[in-house]
Amino acid sequence: YREIRLILGDQLNASHSWYKDDDEGRVLYVMMEMRQETDYVVHHRQKILAFFAAMRAFADALGTLHDVFYLRLDSDENQHDLSANLTWLLELTGVKKLSYQEPDEYRLESQLAQMDLPTSVQRSCVSSEHFITQRDDLVRYFPQLDSADDKSGKGLLMETFYRQIRKQTGYLMDNGKPIGGKWNFDSENRKSLSNQQSIPEPLLFKNDVCHIDTTLKNMKIRTIGNCNPSELLWPISRRQSRELLEHFIRYCLPNFGRYQDALSERGWSLFHARISFSLNIKMLSPQEVIERVIRAYEKNPDTINIAQVEGFVRQILGWREYVRLIYWHFMPDYKQTNYFNHNRKLPHYYWTGDTKMRCMQQSIRQSLDYAYAHHIQRLMVTGNFALLTGVSPDEVNAWYLGIYIDAIEWVELPNTHGMSQFADGGILASKPYVSSGNYIHKMGDHCRNCHYDIKAKTGDNSCPFNSLYWHYIDRNLAVFEGNPRMSMIINQWQQRAPDDRAAVLKQANIWLLDLNAL
Ligand code: FAD
Ligand code: SF4
């Protein structure tokens, strides 16, 4: 062979230009299952199984056209370290060129960059040909970052990026104007679910991955979560990923925006697409998803309206691309920030769901069952609780990075550290996403089944979110001073009677003394 081409586990992009080469047997494609990947955080078992199953399916398909070397987890030759395995393989084959696609994670980028290759081996890094933007593009959309003395990142807005990228790509644009006459349909969206509204059945696959599960058992890989390895529900091929997308378009898209913030005990994925795993490991491309959804809207304007489609396109074209640009611009310092100096440990129920708080119990239990929670469960239930109670951002990040099927650091970290925990001090979000129990009550039906009383602010049965919310506001008054987006809430708090405030703070302190008891 003349060249080794490394394919990382989240680079299953079958349309990559690499594979269009007729390399005439001169290229060896290399894929590896390694303990460095199963062990850098404790993952959900379904996540490891889905990754390895998808990698194996991809290698099998690639192997029909090209030469592939696939190192399995239990192979005797496996040193379980990317650099060590590559060095060994280069020596073994005598190949003088190593190529890889741009990794999405800083961790892997650094590892490859620091790899000590013999001078005779040429190294080449190519695009993964997946994203719409380039990873160092943030300054292109926010030129002030380049010139300003203040490099803190304050004042960046996703909306500013989003409007530019809509114009640049032409998605949902007509003659330079947004289709539907406005950029944002949030005011029409984000409703709670009525009891009359039926919820589609999620499409679940039944992939038999018992053979991989046995390897995990034999190798004593530590995991969290529940799993039936004879019926893994996640897509592990491009064909299944496309089926999931079609299912979403048919049954969920007509109501996607409307209920994208709803919480409900009647379903665990509601009108969400559940395609983040397929997207993040590149079995689906963002362009194809956006174009397919826009095509469905154009063909079916009576059933799918612009508010639903714009709400969806905003997530992929807007948020997904944006968080990646933030990640690559601000790493590695980004991960070290801890704006509020929070240092509590996560309560035990994040690993069991055994809590009397119904909203938390449901969000965590379904995360353990399915390796999935939708955005509002992640942001306004489990994330909200962790921020209100002052849990260390490192603890929170490790939990989110482990438990979710779609969790890869470039997308998990900005969402958790930035959007959910405000640990970056406001680079990603202009104000912290926190709420009392009222928001959870307004958006869903958990409170009616809860041990705690949503209406009560103090007392043994009062909803913990209610007092913890005000405790958080009160202890950060000085921090929020000067943030216009927080001024209304601060005034509200300060106008309450001193006795009332004292009682609420006292109640919150009782909860904080023993969070594990909630
Ligand atoms: P849908 O609601 O159907 O949305 C469609 C697609 O839009 C998603 O598949 C996803 O690709 C994209 N999207 C939506 N919101 C975001 C967002 N905020 N950032 C980036 N892409 C977005 N997403 C991940 O892919 N990996 C993560 O590790 C991850 N961690 C998160 C942690 C926290 C604390 C929060 C608040 C959000 C996190 N998200 C993460 C974003 C979002 O919650 C998930 O993308 C979404 O729930 C995936 O489910 P879905 O495919 O059904 O999404
Ligand atoms: Fe959650 Fe409070 Fe409602 Fe219980 S009462 S479900 S803890 S918001």
Describe the fold and architecture.
With 518 residues, the protein is mainly alpha-helical. It has three domains: 3-126, 3-Layer(aba) Sandwich (Rossmann fold); 138-210 and 230-330, Serine Threonine Protein Phosphatase 5, Tetratricopeptide repeat, CATH 1.25.40; 348-517, DNA Cyclobutane Dipyrimidine Photolyase, subunit A, domain 3 (Orthogonal Bundle), CATH 1.10.579.10. The chain is 45% helix and 6% strand. The chain has 22 helices and seven strands. A five-stranded parallel beta sheet has the order 3-2-1-4-5, covered by helices on one side. The chain has a two-stranded antiparallel ribbon with strand order 6-7. Helix 4 links the parallel strand 4 (97-101) and strand 5 (122-126). Helix 7 (158-169) packs across helix 12 (306-330), helix 12 crosses helix 17 and helix 16 packs across helix 17. The longest helix has 25 residues, at 306-330. The chain is globular and about 80 Å long. It starts with a strand and ends in a 5-residue tail after the last helix. 42% of the residues are buried. The structure holds flavin-adenine dinucleotide and iron/sulfur cluster. The site of flavin-adenine dinucleotide has 27 residues, from helix 10, helix 12, helix 15 and helix 17. GO terms for molecular function: lyase activity.
